[in-house]
Design brief:
Shape of chain A: flat
Distance between the termini of chain A: 54 Å
Number of strands of chain B: 11
CATH topology of the largest domain in chain B: D-Maltodextrin-Binding Protein, domain 2
Helix content of chain A: over 70%
CATH topology of the largest domain in chain A: MetI-like fold
Strand content of chain A: under 5%
Order of helices and strands of chain A: HHHHHHHHHHHHHHHHH
CATH architecture of the largest domain in chain A: Orthogonal Bundle
Number of helices of chain B: 18
CATH superfamily of the largest domain in chain A: MetI-like
Number of domains of chain B: 2
Number of strands of chain A: 0
CATH architecture of the largest domain in chain B: 3-Layer(aba) Sandwich
Order of helices and strands of chain B: HEHEHEHHEEEEHHHEHHHEHEEHHHHHH
Oligomer: heterodimer
Distance between the termini of chain B: 67 Å
Largest interface: A-B, 51 and 53 residues
Largest sheet of chain A: none
CATH superfamily of the largest domain in chain B: Periplasmic binding protein-like II
Strand content of chain B: 5-15%
Chain lengths: ~375, ~425
């Protein structure tokens, strides 16, 4: 332990420590309370009375989650103080800087994740209490009378839905699971086909010689200037004439030709040296092999970026999917359209929308987690052209 | 290698998904009856009663079966527009009241006069049926109607000494509405006086909060007897003295008397949220939020909108049902829709769902346990007609910014409404 403690550094450390204790107590307090809330909601049944029972259980658990938050804060404080005291005097400036950085990052994480936390908490709130804010602590957004009723209604496992479903098998299919599966299929298939066609198109525009190639490319780009709404009715007319109304094909078929995708991939492929392609051709590679072995691996980050963007577009494409949905057949209803069914003329079932959103963000989060390296790489690579 | 495995797993999972979920054919059991498709936007509880009424109608009409198809309210207009363009529309549909005029002008819906509507027209609430009246012909009939009344936070009234303390023992639902109604402001002048006692800017508490869209503002305008367009729909009247007076009074609540929270500004706490959290003592709201406020365990009451020079009044909202010209069975559709909205079925519908009746015959038969709904029924009798124009959205777009300019002090009411009247006349009524 160092003998000469610099008063300025000690003062700064004390301030940072106080901020850290506050942050750790508030954050861990909310997280443990959330855990207690989920536990209470799971252990009680369906209906308003059960929500009250869950609220009583939560009250009983208050000392537990408060105690846990205090323990976490104390343990963290002890660790940090020990670390500070063990740090050599000349390194304490750097220690304080790092501590400040971590605290700033913690605040940043709270700001970024707060909407998701709000979504999770709201999904457990009974109808009518979604907008109620705690009078004692406005930042305490964990519901005091939690319920799983929103999830039950969304998944149609509540008593009323089960009874209605038993009478009508078509009605039984109108549930979140069906909408989710439909959207997953539509978005994945569309994303795969768009990237396939766009990468092949971009390869031709970037590396092949064609008469009027530049003019054709400009013509394609010009179509991006026309608002998509202009195409909607003619495209819908075509889809209906093709007999695809209400099918999954109709959800994405008109959007398979992605000019934006071709443009983005072409910009990247222009940076791939022609000599690589020539070397492959000298080694006897066919056109398809050049595309598959040389172009695709090199352009993978940007291709995956396009895949993600297309997936996101189709995952949340409300208007087109609404138009081509055959509402008589629940098997053609996708997630954005299904979620809109929870909104009425004057009111929105916020609890239902939030509980459905808890599920609907999962595929996007998983995709992003797996492909984030490529995604970030792809976003920046297109920006630089040498 | 690890990535390759992930890709293989993803491809296998995708193929399995395709195998399980791609097929979208669904088994239906045709039983030889003619199907009448009815697109609606009801919620789960409403759909249960709808199906019950459909069953009753089908027993008297064995040749037909009604297929109720729920579509999202948010997208019902574009869905219907595109479906009708390619001939994929339903036989009948429930639409927002403001959409009937557009459908009628586009010659998409049946004039109910040709089916004998004149004989039963008087059964329906005049303010609600007004939205179906396009050029003197009726192209739909109301199936659900709403209006707004004034909601009061009783606790804030008690804190300000405006409600007798003995009422504290009353629970929100059990307290007699009449007792509370006696202490409420009857006129806008009284409302302002109450407002001053209820506002405490230092605590962020305001007496009143309002939105600024034409539909909500109709309440103020109607209490002044102002009309937006003439009865024949050819002249914009929004620059009348009555309308100017109403908008000046609205603006004074915020700028002069400082009892309105400015909830109409972008990013402000909405009236609903502020009311639930005890920030706003009074808001205009419809019956659709009664259950929500009760669930939020609020102590609130409902009273009539304070009277202006034309007495108490309110706006009217809701939905209408229409029959499309593409339907081959317009008479059967008409039979169903009139059956659906007759007094007997309205009583069943309204008592089960706590909604206001649109059939005058049901007014004396419906008795709500919730006294607040009885206040709404009383308020509904004073509702003013909505402006029937071919594009209500455009009307809102033209008028709302002008009223906002008055509320924020950028223009005076006469100047702003004169400008709004000119735009509405040129771009909506004369075009």
């Amino acid at each position: 332990m160092s003998k000469d403690l610099h008063p300025g550094r000690v003062f700064a450390f004390m301030i940072l420590l106080a901020i850290m204790i506050t942050l750790s107590y508030v954050i861990s307090g909310q997280l443990f309370k959330f855990g207690a809330m989920v536990f209470s909601a799971f252990t009680t049944g369906e209906g308003a009375e059960s929500a009250m029972k869950a609220g009583e259980l939560m009250l009983k658990l208050t000392p537990v989650h408060n105690g846990l938050a205090i323990i976490v804060s104390i343990v963290l404080t002890i660790c940090v103080v020990q670390r500070f005291l063990r740090t050599k005097n000349e390194m304490r400036g750097a220690f304080l800087k790092r501590m400040f950085l971590y605290e700033a990052l913690a605040v940043g994480v709270v700001v970024v994740l707060f909407p998701f936390f709000w979504m999770l908490c709201t999904s457990f709130k009974p109808s009518g209490q979604e907008l109620v804010i705690s009078k004692t602590n406005p930042f305490d957004i964990v519901p005091s009378e939690p319920t799983l009723d929103n999830f039950r209604r969304v998944l149609k496992t509540d008593a009323a839905s089960v009874a209605a479903g038993a009478l009508d098998p078509i009605e039984n299919k109108k549930n979140f699971g069906t909408y989710f599966l439909n959207s997953l299929l539509v978005a994945t298939t569309a994303a795969f086909l768009v990237t396939l066609f766009a990468s092949m198109g971009a390869y031709v525009f970037s590396k092949k010689e064609l008469p009027y190639k530049q003019q054709m490319f400009m013509l394609l780009l010009a179509t991006m200037m026309i608002p998509g709404m202009m195409f909607m009715v003619p495209q819908f007319f075509m889809v209906c004439k093709m007999g695809l109304f209400g099918t999954k094909w109709a959800m994405f078929l008109p959007h398979l030709a992605s000019v934006f995708g071709i443009f983005m991939l072409k910009q990247f492929m222009d940076t791939i040296p022609d000599s690589l392609i020539e070397a492959a051709q000298i080694d006897g590679a066919s056109e398809w092999q050049v595309f598959r072995v040389v172009i695709v691996p090199l352009a993978l980050p940007i291709i995956l970026t396009l895949f993600l963007l297309t997936f996101l577009f189709h995952w949340s494409n409300f208007l087109w999917q609404l138009i081509v949905t055959n509402f008589e057949n629940p098997l053609s209803i996708t997630l954005p359209v299904g979620l809109a069914l929870f909104r009425g003329q004057y009111t929105s079932e916020l609890g239902l929308i939030m509980s459905a959103s808890c599920f609907s963000i999962v595929p996007i989060a998983v995709l992003f987690l797996f492909a984030q390296r490529y995604f970030i790489e792809g976003m920046t690579q297109g920006a630089v052209k040498e | 290698m690890k990535e390759r495995n992930l890709i293989i797993i993803a491809v296998i999972a995708y193929l399995a998904l395709v195998f399980v979920g791609w097929d979208d054919s669904i088994a239906t059991s045709p039983d030889g009856r003619t199907i009448l498709t009815f697109w609606h936007t009801y919620n789960d509880q409403e759909e249960v009663i709808l199906r019950e009424i459909i069953k009753k109608w089908e027993t008297g009409n064995p040749k037909f079966t009604i297929r109720p198809v729920r579509i999202p309210f948010d997208g019902h207009k574009p869905k219907l527009r595109t479906a009708l363009t390619v001939g994929q529309g339903p036989d009948m549909a429930r639409v927002d009241w403001s959409f009937v005029c557009e459908l009628a002008r586009k010659n998409a819906v049946v004039d109910l006069g040709t089916l004998g509507f004149e004989t039963i027209r008087a059964q329906y609430l005049p303010a609600a049926i007004g939205s179906c009246n396009v050029g003197g012909k009726f192209y739909g009939l109301p199936d659900q109607s709403n209006c707004v009344a004034m909601f009061y936070n009783r606790q804030m009234f008690r804190d300000a000494g405006l409600l007798p303390p003995q009422a504290e023992t009353d629970s929100a639902a059990a307290a007699p509405a009449d007792e509370f109604a006696n202490v409420l402001p009857k006129t806008w002048e009284e409302f302002i006086e109450f407002g001053k006692k209820l506002t405490d800017e230092s605590k962020g508490q305001y007496a009143f909060a309002m939105l600024n869209t034409l539909w909500w503002n109709l309440t103020f305008l109607n209490t002044y007897g102002a009309r937006i367009v003439s009865e024949d729909g050819t002249k914009c009247l929004i620059d009348s003295d009555a309308a100017v007076g109403a908008v000046e009074m609205m603006a004074s609540l915020f700028a002069k008397h400082k009892i309105e929270a400015g909830a109409w500004r972008p990013g402000a706490i909405t009236p609903e949220q502020g009311f639930v959290n005890g920030k706003y003592a009074m808001i205009m709201m419809g019956p659709w939020n009664l259950a929500k406020f009760k669930n939020a365990k609020m102590d609130f009451g409902v009273g009539l909108i304070p009277a202006g020079p034309a007495g108490t009044s309110t706006n009217v909202g809701g939905t209408d049902v229409v029959i499309f010209k593409g339907s081959k069975y317009a008479e059967a559709c008409y039979s169903f829709l009139t059956f659906f909205t007759n007094a007997e079925n309205q009583v069943r519908w309204c008592t089960a769902l706590n909604q206001l009746p649109i059939n005058l015959g049901a007014y004396d038969l419906v008795k709500f346990e919730d006294q607040h709904l009885m206040t709404f029924m009383e308020q509904m009798k004073h509702a003013g007609p909505n402006p029937v124009v071919k594009d209500f959205g455009l009307l809102e777009d033209l008028v709302n910014p002008e009223i906002e300019a008055v509320l924020s002090g950028q223009k005076n009411a006469k100047e702003a409404l004169g400008s709004a009247a000119k735009k509405v006349q040129e771009r909506l009524l004369d075009s």
